[in-house]
Amino acid sequence: ATGLDLLTATDPEIDALLAALHGPGAGLLIVRNQTLSPQQLETAIFRLGTARGGFGVPLPYEQWPGQSPRLRCCGHLSLLGNYVAKHRDELGTGVRVGERIGEYKPAVDEAQEWHVDGSFLPRPKTGIALYAPPDTPVEVCVPCDRRGWRRLLQWLVPCPPRCHTRVVGALPPVGGATAFASTVAGYDSLSPAEQAAAERLDAVHSWCDFMRFLEGRDPARPKASAAQCAARPDVIWPLVRTHPVTGRKGLFLNPKNALRVIPRGGEEAGGAGSGALPTVHSRAAAPAPSGAPHLADWAPLSPAAAAGGLVLNLTQRVLFTGVYSHQWAPGDLVLFDNRVLLHAATPFDASAHERLLFRAEFSGEPVYLY
What we know:
Blueprint: H1 11-21, E1 28-31, H2 38-50, E2 78-80, E3 127-131, E4 138-142, H3 153-156, E5 162-166, E6 178-182, H4 183-189, H5 192-198, E7 201-205, H6 207-217, H7 226-231, E8 235-238, E9 240-242, E10 249-251, E11 260-263, H8 307-320, E12 324-326, E13 333-337, E14 341-345, E15 357-361
Antiparallel strand pairs: 1-13, 2-15, 3-13, 3-15, 4-5, 6-12, 6-14, 7-8, 7-11, 9-10
Helix pairs in contact: 4-8
């Protein structure tokens, strides 16, 4: 959508945007040219979430190892990218000049880069909002930074928010896009026999596997402890889910942290009961869709093949149905349905360029097949 200000748009205009998001084969909303401060962004996201057809109330930001510091102004926002602070306490993050303020996950052109967010949670996220700050100055007001005993001073010596007007943001000229692919289209591309077989499978989603995956990509990333892993046990979800709004079925895949597949009532794939696994045939001769990453050809997968191979094969089946790669422009706000889309960042030259996106997530729900 263009020519629309999310802060002043009418309720019917917002409703129409969300209706289009849930249209057949969609799940993606892009609103361009938004000039929003962090506080205004939070207001716009609340409006989108609580409108008719929205994903619900945005969730307060919960910081995990390696993620961005909290923004004191905006408790529902986090930061993505390799952007380093140009000012002390930039955006109220408490960082020093030259310190990275976003969560940076180096992207690689491979199938395992694709994922859904938070699939390892008891209630996986329904939707995600991403925002590229404008290239024009905006007013940023940051609450006073008084931690620990210094907070007591607030009662004696009030500390008003610090406000300043400046450009906050960065995008690389090449790369750094966010690509999307429909798991509904992926499911529809399977044969009836493959669909039936996939519906008899579950996958194990692991927060700890996800942390180890990210740590392997970035050795400098803070490590998740054994206690943190134990506090977030694995969850099991169907390999095929039914969308609660549209009623359509789609594959529920997460190559980053859910490579283990379990036939329902059986053992992990490759053991007893693994005959339920569908055979995915090679499509080496098929052309990759426009904007798709350069993926290796994939070979036939027998019922006794490793579960990780099955998930990666099905991921590539999704990608062969089509990929939309969103090249970010300042002021872009992207809202996507985490229940029907896989997404992945594309690489960029992080040694020469910076990238910064704001992120918010919406309340989750269990995954069902019916």
